[in-house]
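We now fix the convention by which a protein and its fold are recorded. Here is one such record, which you should read through line by line:

>
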Amino acid sequence: MQSIDHSTYEALRKGAQVLEADGSGDKVLKLADGRMLKLFRRKRLLSSALFFPYAQRFANNTRALQQRGILCPQVIAVYRIPSVKRDGVYYSPLEGRTVRQLQGSAEDGDSLRKQLGSYFALLHEKGVYFRSLHFGNVVLTPDHQLGLIDIADLRCQKRALSDSKRLRNFAHLLRYKEDRQWLLGDDAGDSFIEGYRQALPSNRQAPLISRLRPLLV
């Protein structure tokens, strides 16, 4: 992590568009060069972020995902910005539209739901546990591949996820009423479940789906 002074920070953000902000200040900036600067603040004096900053977690997670062949943003630098009491990650965004943006579009919903099922199975089999997984964090790229964004709250392990972690991951995903209705509603069919099942190892399909199905109805 590189510490930068206020003049360097101001030069970096000159001409930037504020995409996200709250009462404490800017959160996500689209810079003049088309790249992004995501800013993190430590909300409590004593927290894990003091020793393992969220900006660094974001950068580390991009490396872990890239090692697994999973599309995600490309980190350029990680900054500490003492003048605004923030850490920042400077990165090239993953181009495309989020699945949440696509839900009301003319895209083939069944095909996308099945693709998502296969994609989540891939993440789980590769040991990716995204605690904040939702359809605003999953992007469909112009060449119709899926990738992840906003990945500070993510962990990667060497082995495939346990059944209990998969269930927790899906429970978090399905907390969002509109997402659940689009994914599993009366008009959705079994596309998502079938996509997930087909992407699993054959010896894992029946027992795992039997545990997941009560949650996915």
Q: What stands out?
A: The chain has a mean pLDDT of 88. Residues 109-125 form the longest helix (17 residues). The first strand starts at residue 2 and ends at 3. The chain has two domains: 2-92, 97-212.
